[in-house]
């Protein structure tokens, strides 16, 4: 699904990713953990092609295609989805128009006809249920006036609509209460298929109790410094990161 | 003084014809207007209110005029069929500067309401006209108003008597129709008496690919507790010059909604002067401009708060592409004693190219202390974070920009009270942004 | 009107307001005395001979005289501008004397060696001691009365670092090449009517040159005093900050109380080179005229800085409380890439004062950034206007401007106006302007009253709080004075 080789990236003059190596196979869920400022969000931003970051080295292959040369929208069309940590509000653009544009651009990329209005409305209705998203929210402008929990649910709703191959959930649990997190996690689990993969970026293991990862990585100072099974998340929850830093000879 | 001379000569040569074709009430102010025009001359760009449009240049070319009131062979009711769903307006036409009265819409206006030829009305009700005509549209301080007053022979009158509410919106289509380059001088008088209400929609269109120069003076008198919605949509073409001066006087407790929308034009200059003459009046002036190529749009507003307890609100939004040039200059004047005035003015602009130029000038002039006045003005680009968010969802950069521009302008469109017009405009604006309306194809709104 | 409908509430507030307005009206101008010193004043009137005479008196080289004559020739072709929101009468330029020298020897008398003790006393009284041992620590002063620089302190100490700080007259004699290189390059004499007039007849002012890489160790300051009757003051200041240098410059001014109006038409030019930084602060307290609008200084000033260098920085801060009429727009031309300009202003008008002041930010270089913070406070029957221009040129990619202009009205007979102009010719620019106009809220006043603070003092507090953003930008020594001045100018306003 995804192969990242020696990826370097910077923002402004500051180098943040210093040689990331990562392989994700079809159907796998990977968790990426790490202390604040270790580069987790940068990794997700670079993968989806945020122009604020500059890639200074390395390569990324996504389903056989080189990702780094692609425009952000084409990466999305290839099946890459990011659930943003801070989804932006877009006043005046209705959720409906927004989603219709997203769906139809993808269909165009795949050489298909635009979706009919009736089918589209049916699809919206169906997918809304997955994250229990209120009809009223769907009628508003994108993320405008949404609460923190509603924004995250809206992210998963869009994920359901677009059916990506690889989803990156960037701190999707931050700012959510227990119930909202359950809804979001259940939504993600419902969308899992043997062919689709997932990267879960998080500080804590709470979300990982609900979305079970196959592999857990620790990202620190722009590198993946430790990779293990789901038990690693539990251990970090109990012991923090200091012991990993100690292993690296830092503390 | 150069451009002026041809108009001075024209007046001197055709004064008799002008008088002969017009009602006494219109002729009564003609010579005075001529004197004022001769004295004022066209304003130079050193005159603050004309800083952004070169009037002399606009009026310099030699246009034909239809002073002898030759019949224009067209039946607009055949040429333009309205298919705006559910708008169900009462539809009228002004061809060049003459009210088209050979056919009339089937719908009936409430008893006593008049929508018709200004010249006819002035002939039948001189006493009514005399109290209003050329009163707030002062000829001694604006050369274009003076020019219009000295040359105008007809136009539109809208008269709504006391306490009559016109439910159905009235739509007036101004068609420019000519086989030669033409100047027209259109005059509009709107009288909404105490407690009366009306919604008016003016659409400007050019039916021929000729150079047109249109002057327009609209005077609107809104009585105590009366309501006026006035929507003006301009969809002409690049060879069209329009100079429109709108004067509104509001009495106590009255409400005015004014929307001015420029989608296609050559050069447009809109002056809007609104006077709060009675306490508790409210107005909302909204405008949007979508311009590209070499379009030039200049909106200039003055809201004159003369009495206490009035509220004014202005929102103008511009999206400029290509080599478009546009200006917004707004002035809110709060006179001594006009306490408890609330006034807000916002002007927001997006320049999409380097060659697009925007001039903005939001002014407050305040002589009373117990007021809340604010203005804000921005020039910027589309939100990068929003653009990226949309691209991540697979929406192309071009499409994402369109959606954001569309959303930006929608804040103005959404304030339109007339639902079918609002829906229709959403569509028109989107098409406009997509470049699907590369020029006016007659009446987009109505065909 | 409202008082009739709402008797109780209205009366209370009005009484308080009237009380306050009365107190403001009684406010005395602290610096209104005159100095009795022999002053040589040339004949009233302006013609080419007068321009030649001024140049001769100052023993100027030919190029300087040429400059003056060209400016004068241009001035004659111009008319007094009328666009400001001020009621400036047509000034009779022939009824003013263009040169007044309080240092001149009496006819037949001896050459003065020492400064007249009367002059020293005057500046002491103004709080500007000219003896270095008495001076405010860390402030060097160029003291100017009428047309002549009386003394410049700490000249030698500054010279050790290569800093030139002297009167412009001295600079023309001692550093002609520097003056010639920069004079009139930021404000050409064709710039406007008053700039042309100043260029023809300017008498004295300060000259500052900070060499490459030097941080000026003390605050430099000019103090302007008009003393003689029926004279105009036409000072000219030129500041050049070479690469990587820094200087903070202060300007203060006062004038005697006189019934007739006095004309002050100055030019300040600032050149900021690569990575250099200049802070220019003004506390303007010219005689504002009396409570009936009689007398006062016409303060018609052209101030402009050119940020020529890459990464250069210029900051204008002004506290304007004096003058009958102020017409002043300290401006910045952001020519160098990444240059940064700021304008912070508090303008207070009272009685019949009229102020039309603001700034121009002309963005020409890439990634340039400007900030405008303007606070207007009007009381009495005064008129207070902000007028500003932000222009973004076609090549000024990523230019940013933020402007905020607030007006506070104290009393119902004054006016507060905002005239911003924004011309944007670049699609990557972001320009934001916001403005509000309001009065001091009854809620705030009542809150203070409830805590035992009398209304008059509460107003002072609130106004100072309102102006704080600007006052904070002033160097310490001036900030205290400015704060005092604000309270004094407005003691007791509104309810």
Automatic annotation (TrEMBL), chain A:
Residues 2-246 form the ABC transporter domain. It comes from the Bacteria. SMART domains: AAA. Pfam families: ABC_tran (PF00005). Keywords: ATP-binding, Nucleotide-binding. Signal peptide: none annotated. SUPFAM superfamilies: P-loop containing nucleoside triphosphate hydrolases (SSF52540). InterPro entries: AAA+_ATPase, ABC_transporter-like_ATP-bd, FeS-cluster_ATPase_SufC, P-loop_NTPase. Belongs to the ABC transporter superfamily. Ycf16 family. NCBIfam families: sufC. This is Fe-S cluster assembly ATPase SufC. The gene is sufC.
From TrEMBL, chain B:
It comes from the Bacteria. InterPro entries: Fe-S_cluster_assembly_SufBD, SUF_FeS_clus_asmbl_SufBD_core, SUF_FeS_clus_asmbl_SufBD_sf, SUF_FeS_clus_asmbl_SufD, SufBD_N. Residues 182-408 form the SUF system FeS cluster assembly SufBD core domain. It holds the Pfam family SufBD_N. Transmembrane segments: none annotated. Residues 1-172 form the SUF system FeS cluster assembly SufBD N-terminal domain. Belongs to the iron-sulfur cluster assembly SufBD family. PANTHER family: PROTEIN ABCI7, CHLOROPLASTIC. This is Fe-S cluster assembly protein SufD. It comes from Xylanibacter rodentium.
UniProtKB/TrEMBL annotation, chain C:
It comes from Xylanibacter rodentium. The gene is sufB. Pfam families: SUFBD_core (PF01458), SufBD_N (PF19295). Belongs to the iron-sulfur cluster assembly SufBD family. This is Fe-S cluster assembly protein SufB. Residues 224-465 form the SUF system FeS cluster assembly SufBD core domain. Residues 153-216 form the SUF system FeS cluster assembly SufBD N-terminal domain. PANTHER family: FES CLUSTER ASSEMBLY PROTEIN SUF (PTHR30508), UPF0051 PROTEIN ABCI8, CHLOROPLASTIC-RELATED (PTHR30508:SF1). InterPro entries: Fe-S_cluster_assembly_SufBD, SUF_FeS_clus_asmbl_SufB, SUF_FeS_clus_asmbl_SufBD_core, SUF_FeS_clus_asmbl_SufBD_sf, SufBD_N. It comes from the Bacteria.
